[in-house]
From TrEMBL:
Key words of the record: Oxidoreductase
Protein name as catalogued: Flavin reductase family protein
Domain of life: Bacteria
SMART domains: Flavin_Reduct
Family (UniProt): Belongs to the non-flavoprotein flavin reductase family.
UniProt xrefs under Gene3D superfamilies: Electron Transport, Fmn-binding Protein, Chain A
Residues annotated as transmembrane: none
Domain Flavin reductase like: from-to ranges: 21-166
InterPro entries attached to this UniProt entry: Flavin_Rdtase-like_dom, NADH-dep_flavin_reductase, Split_barrel_FMN-bd
């Protein structure tokens, strides 16, 4: 296909969609909670996160239907969304693992309701799930913000064209 040629919708495949969408740089967040019944922290990494509304304060993120961690996060009353900094690629990779103790080696403190606020994150946002919308192979989660704070200035961890990095 020639550069700049239009791909008909019927000809779209996952690889091409990912390649084109990869041209949009996103930040990376860690969505965390204390798993009910176990008292253990758990979490996932996501690059589909955005603010939605100021009044009421709402944010949104997307989670794949195949996530085995999301049902455990969803069972918690409160979640903590941690905006990861450039030096936190290791945290992102840990939380992207399937199974095991995802928090092994990750230091954290409690948000006001006790959800894991990851040490070194640029900021944290404590929220509760308000709505969920099925969208293809993901669920769009809209969450109400209850508390938030900045931890420090720093460069964000960025996902662009299939790779992690920072802003120069």
């Amino acid at each position: 296909m020639a550069h700049g040629a239009i791909t008909p919708a019927a000809d779209l495949d996952g690889a091409r969609f990912r390649q084109v969408m990869g041209r949009f740089a996103t930040g990376v967040v860690a969505i965390t909670a204390v798993e009910p019944g176990t008292g253990r922290p758990t979490g996932i990494a996501a690059n589909s996160f955005t603010s939605v509304s100021l009044d009421p304060p709402l944010v949104a993120f997307c989670v794949a239907h195949t996530s085995t961690t999301w049902p455990r996060l969803r069972a918690s009353d409160r979640l903590c969304i941690n905006i990861l900094g450039e030096p936190q690629l290791d945290v992102c990779r840990r939380l992207a693992l399937k199974g095991g103790d995802k928090f092994d080696g990750i230091d954290w403190t409690e948000s006001p309701s006790g959800a894991p606020a990851i040490d070194g994150a640029l900021a944290w946002i404590e929220c509760s799930v308000e709505q969920e919308h099925v969208a293809g192979d993901h669920v769009i989660v809209v969450a109400r913000v209850h508390a938030l704070d900045e931890n420090h200035d720093g460069r964000p961890l960025v996902f662009y064209r299939g790779a992690y990095g920072g802003i120069a």
